[in-house]
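hey so i finaly got around to running the thing on Metalloendopeptidase from Aspergillus ibericus CBS 121593. pasting the sequence first so u can double check i didnt mess up the copy paste, my clipboard has been acting weird all day
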Amino acid sequence: MASLQHWVVFLLLSIFPVVDAGHPDWEHARFSSPAWLFIKPGAKYQLWPRSTIPLCYDSDETRDTFHDILWAAMRLWYAAGLPESFRLLEINRLACIHNPFESLYVEGTRDVLASDIGMPLISMRSGADQPEVDKPTIKVFVDRENLGWTIKSAAHELGHAFGLLHEHQNPSFWGPNGADKVFRFYCMHLHDFVEITEGMYEDDVWGQTGVCRDIISAEEIGFSAGDWLPEVATDVFTPHPWWAHDSMVDWDSIMLYQSFSDSIDEDHIPVLTRWDTSTWESSWTPSTLDVAGLEAMYESPWANPMLPFWNDIRSPYFALFRQFSHCA
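ok and heres what it spat out for the 3d tokens, dont ask me to read them lol
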């Protein structure tokens, strides 16, 4: 017979479910539109309330450099049909100080373009009582010889900031364990392949959890394959069936890397090709399906939750979630 303690744990887990990161809002979600890949709110991220991203700059110099670039990047999205209810909102420095986890920090860099996806949940990677805290950040730099490229790259990063993922990382387009299906992935052509894999056993590179087959393994060591391999299927939403094929790829997506990105030779040696080995160039404007994906995401029932997800430190139920999500 089950002990009283087991019954208590059972009842509490019934009240505070841990499946899908502890929130039931999307359990019966369905999508009928043809193509996109975006975050599953509550798994690692959540959506920006009212589709508005409050912006903070790490310095006045950063603001002077990137303010106009970011707004020009947003105009690319508007020109593609994104409603102006999606917006950037610059807030004052005091608001940034008092609300560091509800705003996106713009950080100027020398050569890095990157953005957190959506509004990240406050990190819980350290101790249960004192979780590590990371501010949402978008990292940008300016190619002064090609401002057009800079603006288009910023538009790609804003797609991430609002919640879109890379089109080519849709797990529907890949076989089991990162195997080729719709695309052919040439991991050995990545610019950092030799450096990363030096001294590794073959299975550590090409095995089921190898760095050229598993996104988590690649990301843990900072390998660029993490920007190419399929996302973990349980962390994302896509309307594609698992038997997706070439015609379902949005080849016009601004969230799709070109074939030669990150390559040891970005003019001649591809990293990713179609199954027939043909290649494609970058699309530097948002597609209609990119816009449709954002609209679908922010029109969903969980777009503006009344309370944070239970696995977010800002939730009043966070302590209970932490206590009972690890029960054995």
